[in-house]
Write a structure and sequence with these properties.
The protein is an alpha/beta fold and about 160 residues long. It has a single domain, classed as YbaK/aminoacyl-tRNA synthetase-associated domain (YbaK protein). The longest helix has 10 residues. The radius of gyration is 14 Å and the shape is globular.
């Protein structure tokens, strides 16, 4: 968590930190995030059927994921990645998945797929790889963070 904040500060990215009880679902997070500006999202770790490609999908919290439709967009047969993949590639556990985990993807294995509603939101908020805090960033700072990574980016 502190490495995320240090990374962001190194990029001169401003953020607000909000502490709250541990949350594991979007519904639980909603109870504690009422005072946080901007769009709330869900972050899903997906892989292809052969476990060769990995994707971090970032959607508005209230949007349902159509796996078949997303598979067509990505031109891939996809499924949810397992906890071992999550730990090995992003050094995260279930319930703490966020775009900030991508700083642990040193081999740039994960493609970032962001819903345009999240990408265009004035403010975004994500866990800093721990589910007891939320960081709020402006759109410009979120874009700066994402572009600082070497991962392939797709806006859908």
């Amino acid at each position: 968590m502190e490495n995320i904040k240090k990374y962001l500060k190194g990029l001169k990215i401003n953020f607000k930190t909000y502490s709250h009880p541990a949350v594991y679902t979007c519904e639980e997070a909603e109870q504690h995030n009422k005072n946080i500006k901007g769009i709330h999202s869900k972050n899903l770790f997906i892989k292809d059927k052969k476990s060769k490609k990995f994707y971090l999908i970032i959607l508005p919290a209230n949007k349902n994921l159509d796996m078949a439709e997303l598979g067509e967009i990505l031109n891939d047969k996809i499924k949810f990645a397992n906890e071992n993949d999550l730990r090995e590639i992003l050094d995260l556990s279930a319930g703490s998945v966020s775009p900030f985990g991508l700083i642990n993807d040193t081999e740039n294995k994960v493609q970032i797929v962001i819903d345009k509603e999240v990408w265009n939101s004035d403010f975004v908020s994500f866990h800093p790889n721990i589910n007891t805090e939320t960081l709020e960033l402006t759109r410009e700072d979120f874009h700066k963070y994402i572009k600082s990574l070497k991962n392939i980016l797709k806006i859908i």
